[in-house]
Write a structure and sequence with these properties.
Oligomer: single chain
Number of domains: 1
Structural class: alpha/beta
Largest sheet: 5 strands, parallel
CATH architecture: Alpha-Beta Barrel
CATH class: Alpha Beta
Order of helices and strands: EHEHEHEHEHEHEHEHH
Number of helices: 9
Low-confidence stretches: none
CATH superfamily: Metal-dependent hydrolases
Strand order of the largest sheet: 4-5-6-7-8
């Protein structure tokens, strides 16, 4: 299994991070991918990644919720990091209009600049698209001209949006939300192709049932794979093999 989206460097894991890593390895997680947030956590993420000797692999980018009046300075730092270190994706980037549209124009500009960086460095993109799915898709459709590829992290859209993403050749990141009764995602997973799904936890957030409301961790990805297998009426191993291969295609490792 591959956890394509996990904030294991976050402060929530400060007291037992090594044990969390042990549990993830014990259930067969091959790799964990670490999305960047902003300059306050870049060093923390990179130091942790180095400590894991290639087990936890970093992305670089500016999270849309970190976009404010100083976003241009943050983007300069992103560009500098991409020049001096190896990263496996530009992410997590995108748009988030859930709480506010105060910085909408700046978020769009930051998103488009980082798409350009991904093209420049020939890296995939990991998308954050809360309350902005159509906007993100529209921007990517206009920019999707040089083999751009990536993942819509924590996909929570409808079938129409999913089909547009799949038609671009992109992946849908599926995590703990698929186990929630009222999320509506379960019915969608039944009909979407496994060839366009990757697993994620988004730990420490969005823990799957029966851990909902508690701290999430990479080992819980097994519950996500199990749920997808149940929804599609296939063996869990088939889900693991397919989603792992999908992740390897995206991240080229």
């Amino acid at each position: 299994m591959i956890d394509t989206h996990n904030h294991l460097y976050a402060i929530e894991f400060e007291e037992d991070r090594s044990l969390v890593l042990e549990r993830s390895k014990a259930i067969g997680i091959e790799r964990i991918f670490l999305p960047a947030i902003d300059s306050e956590t870049h060093d923390m993420m990179m130091n942790f990644s180095r400590e894991t000797s290639g087990y936890c692999l970093p992305m670089m980018g500016l999270h849309p919720c970190s976009v404010d009046a100083n976003y241009e300075d943050e983007l300069k730092l992103v560009a500098e990091w991409l020049m001096k270190e190896k990263f496996y994706a530009v992410g997590e980037i995108g748009l988030d209009f859930y709480h506010s549209t105060q910085w909408e124009d700046q978020q769009i500009d930051a998103f488009e600049q980082q798409i350009a960086l991904a093209k420049q460095h020939q890296l995939p993109i990991v998308i954050h698209s809360r309350s902005s799915m159509d906007e993100c898709i529209n921007i990517l459709q206009k920019k999707n001209d040089v083999g751009l590829k990536g993942i819509f992290h924590c996909f929570g859209g409808d079938e129409r949006q999913a089909r547009k993403i799949i038609d671009m050749g992109w992946m849908l990141g599926i995590g703990g939300v698929v186990t929630y009764k009222n999320a509506g995602l379960a019915k969608l997973i039944e009909i979407l192709p496994l060839e366009n799904i990757v697993l994620e936890t988004d730990a420490p957030y969005l823990a799957p049932v029966p851990h909902r409301g508690k701290r999430n961790e990479p080992a819980y990805i097994e519950l996500v794979a199990e749920k997808i297998a149940s929804l599609k009426n296939i063996e869990m191993q088939e889900v693991i093999v397919a989603t792992s291969n999908n992740a390897k295609k995206i991240f080229s490792f």
